[in-house]
C-alpha cells in the first residue's frame, strides 16, 4: 500500500506540478484545475489558474461562486483532471510503476472524502476515510494499462 503522496510518491498528489490545459486555460497543477472547475465564472477560473501555488489555488477555490451542480460532478471533474495529468507519458509510467498497490491519500488535515486522515482526532473517532482520490488514481492506472495493452 502507498499511503501518503509525498517523497517518491509526490507525483500522485494534486499539488504536483503538471500543466493541464482545459478550454484554453493552462492550469499549473491538478489542484489548480480542480479548484477552478468549482465555478462557471471564467474570470475566477483564470485567477485560480494564475495562483502562484497549489495551496493558494485551494484557498481561492473556497471563495468562488460555487456552480450549482458541484456536489454532483466533483468526482467526475477530479477524474478528468487526473486523466489529463497522466496523459504525460513520464507520469503515466510512474503511475504504472506503482503496480497493483493500493493508493491511499493519507493526510493529517481531516480530509476523509478525498483521502484518509491519520490525525489522532479522526483515528480516535474511528472515521473511515473514503479515499476517493486514491480510488480515482487506481482507475486511471487501470485505463492506462488497458490503453497500453498491459491488461
Commentary on this structure:
- The radius of gyration is 15 Å and the shape is globular.
- With 151 residues, it is mainly alpha-helical.
- It starts with 16 loop residues before the first strand and ends with a helix.
- The chain has a two-stranded antiparallel sheet with strand order 1-2.
- Strand 1 (17-22) and strand 2 form a beta hairpin.
- Helices cover 45% and strands 10% of the residues.
Topology:
Layout: E1 17-22, E2 25-29, H1 30-36, H2 42-49, H3 54-61, H4 70-85, H5 89-96, E3 106-107, E4 116-117, H6 120-124, H7 132-147
Parallel strand pairs: 3-4
Antiparallel strand pairs: 1-2
Helix pairs in contact: 1-2, 1-3, 4-7
Structure at a glance:
The protein is mainly alpha-helical. It contains seven helices and four strands; from the N terminus they run ββαααααββαα.
Topology order in helix (H) and strand (E) letters: EEHHHHHEEHH
Spans with pLDDT under 50 lasting ≥5 residues?
A: none
State the secondary-structure class. Answer: mainly alpha
What's the Cα radius of gyration?
A: 15 Å
